[in-house]
Amino acid sequence: MTGQVRGVQLARLLGQWHALPGRRRNPDYAALAGTVRGLLADGRLPLGVRLPAERELAEALRISRTTVTAAYRQLRETGHLASRRGAGSWTMLPGNHRVASTGLWTPLDDREMLDLGVAALAAPPQLLTAARAATEDLPRYLGGAGYHPTGIIELREAVADAYAARGLPTSADQIMVTSGTQHALDLVLRLALAPGGSVLVESPTYPNALAALAGRRARITTHGLAADGWEPDLLLGSLRQTRPKLAYLIPEFQNPTGHLMPASLRERVVAAAHAVGTDLVIDESFVDLPLDGTELPPPVGVYDRHSRVISIGGMSKPYWGGLRIGWVRASAPQVQRLAAVRVGVDMASPVLDQLVAVHLLADADAIVAERRVQLAVQRDALLGALAQRLPDWRVTVPRGGVTLWAELDGPVSSALARAAEEVGVRLAPGPRFGLDGTMERFLRLPFTLPAADLVEAVGRIAAVRYDLDRAGRQRWREPAVIA
Ligand SMILES: Cc1ncc(COP(=O)(O)O)c(C=O)c1O
Q: 330, 393, 435, 466: which sits with the fewest CB atoms below 10 Å from its CB?
């Protein structure tokens, strides 16, 4: 329990609940309960807070108490409210769902939902074969204690070889295996950023990176991405003016925008970072996934002569997120320091999972080629459905990665996400990817679901989009000036 929300506060959060899409088909209590569920799913109403007493909310909303009683009853039935007689009612999510600090949450077994909130593919068929082969390798490790703080040597070698193949000579002692890219970022932040340190990030950016930075209480400045990507002079200017301790960038098919940073800017960013003493954390999550034969510029690390660049990456996007294998590429001394930090966190990654990764990487060419074909087909299906059903939205065709960043026809992203949830589509609205609640005109759409699901999802989104309009546009009016 983290506190209590008062009637007037909840009324303010509920906003135009009585005018939401689908409203005319629903009684008042169902619309009220639906809006509360939307606020919870969107992270705007926290979990574990006590809701106002029925009478108090009824007064704040100027509706009958029976309506609130029925809404609370429905919320209890759907698992969004827990009540104790005489004590009150607390917000919760059905099952064991938890909300992250970003407000994003993953369903455990909600198979009905078309989940466009998660930008990751299902596992490739080769995963099972790799897992079986890994169990056969396991006896080689069973004679030891199994703790390998920087990772098992064969995986570190395979990852180092992949960097070398991309034109960045790398030895195994420059690689540390982690439990996913997110873990890699967290460890790097623990090493390179004192609590309260300053960090430059792109805006929009990957929300869980913001969560990791929040964990270090970082002071964040942003570089706003333009419709066609980074603005070189502004980015370099920000580095020179704010001299952050660290900059976190996603140069390959940036999440969420899909932009690819050109070689010339990579070189200039590294030079500027060196000049002002900034460490660059380069997130290469999507580097394996250029589409349409797009040529990749050299890795950012190629331009690094002063150990300013720490690269992080992993298996989640080309292979499978459930594997939880990622890595850091840094100088060998930095890797040793990271291993020392890790001892206080999780000691080491699971040996069996690392062996699975070794087998997948041995088959990388074939697996990744299939993923690229699959993603291109799904992206095109998504683009086609958007052009047909939501022609007013503007999208830049991403040349790689797994997401596109749509500019909507109005500042409706959060309202749309709430409405879409009601029709079985989970969305991550634009403000999730920023720091200050802006970006309501944008929506990230991943193309990681099968094409038919994407087309179905766009159809449902389009239906609720037009319902939002019919419910009245007045709630998006400019606020009146109060002098
Ligand atoms: C840019 C970026 N970094 C890190 C991650 C987290 O990856 P992992 O599953 O390897 O922890 C993601 C996943 O969406 C991502 O998009």
A: 466
Look at the alpha carbons of 111, 116, 118, 120 in this order and tell me if their dihedral is positive or negative.
positive
- Encoding tokens for residue 344? 């206080």
Mean pLDDT by 10 residues, the chain (483 residues): 80 80 72 85 77 95 95 92 88 65 48 88 97 98 97 98 98 98 98 96 95 94 93 95 97 98 98 97 98 97 95 98 98 97 95 98 98 98 98 96 96 91 92 86 97 97 85 50 53
Residues 6+ apart with CB under 8 A from 58: 64, 65, 67, 68
Place of tokens 């929040």: 214
CA of 62 to the centre of ligand 1 (A): 45
DSSP assignment of 63-121 equals S-HHHHHHHHHHHHHTTSEEEETTTEEEE--STT----TTS----SS-TTSEEES---P
Is the pTM here over 0.85, yes or no? no
CA dist., res. 188 & res. 173, Å (int): 16
Indicate the residue type of 299: P
Mutational pocket test of ligand 1: of 116, 185, 189, 208, the residue with most ligand atoms within 8 Å of the beta carbon: 208
Residue 74 in contact with residue 29, Cβ under 8 Å?
A: yes
HSE (CB half, 13 Å, CA atoms) of 337?
A: 12
Closest residue by Cα to atom 16, ligand 1, is: 255
Neighbours of 448 (CB within 10 A): 23
Q: With a 6 A CB cut-off, is 117 part of the ligand 1 pocket?
A: no
Tell which one of 116, 176, 181, 360 to mutate to probe ligand 1, the residue whose CB is within 8 A of the most ligand atoms: 181
DSSP one-letter string for 351-398: HHHHHHHHHHHHTHHHHHHHHHHHHHHHHHHHHHHHHHH-TTSB-PPP
How far, in Å, CA of 61 to CA of 52, rounded?
A: 12
Supply φ then ψ for residue 289, to 5 degrees.
-120, 50
